[in-house]
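[Automated response] Your request has been received and processed.

Submitted sequence:
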Amino acid sequence: MEFKDLKIFQMVAQKGTITEAAKELSYVQSNITSRIKKLEAEMNTALFNRHNRGMTLTPEGKKLLVYSEKILALTTEMKKVVQSKTEPAGKLEIGTVETVIKLPVILSSYSKKYKNVDLSLLTGVTDQLQNDVLHHRLDGAFVTEIQQHPELVSHNVFQEELVLLSDKTKTSLEQIKEEPILCFSEGCGYRARLARWYKDQNITPQKLMEFGTLETILGSVTMGLGITFVPKSAVSHLEERGLVNCHYLPEKYSKVNTVFIRRKDAYLTSTLEKFIETFEQIEGEPAYPLAY
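Generated structure:
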């Protein structure tokens, strides 16, 4: 068995078809097919169910997927350990929720100081990002603090106050309780907190609309499409311009910590260590508001 076989196996499992896996890996389809058959022969079991819509993992395939993720993650970590230098270098893959307002300051400070690091950023919701860190797809991520996972370590970044945001015509909570909610997809920490408030108030939201970016949500709120629940620091510039109104909820719903998570068992490279040091040192520096 070769590492390449496991990478191909993972891609087919992820994409669900030989065609999509071949396109993603830039391989010919026949090569993918033969590699999968070779792996199944070595395992002496079928790893995929074949059907008209593509391929899905068998129970044995699901077991192999877990082990293949661990094996490939260990090979990546091994390279990092062997190649680790005092000066940060190589790839650093970071995830973040959309509302880390000081992220431009963090990224700029780090990139200017460590020019040999190839830094990439993925945005998403808290549940998705935590899952990506757990499965070694990200080196770390900025997320909304949730129940601590036993395989993760978290570093405090800052505390935020969440506010219910409406257009400038709505001046009280009573006016906005029945408004459509504009939010990120399921798994967003802010959305979960707002849902808890509605439940405690015995209110069933009339309409919920999911968006992909914070900027689109804020623009839609200012146009009167609905309300949202976001950090005050991300919208203070809109409030100062008189474009929106902020409505405040009790602390148990509105106070939230942003943390940086990483795997507890992963080797802490100098590249990641210096990144953590960077965001721990930026407290108090001005953030860059959204352009909207």
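Summary generated for your ticket: The longest strand covers residues 152-167. The two ends are 53 Å apart (CA to CA).
If you did not submit this request, please reply to this message.
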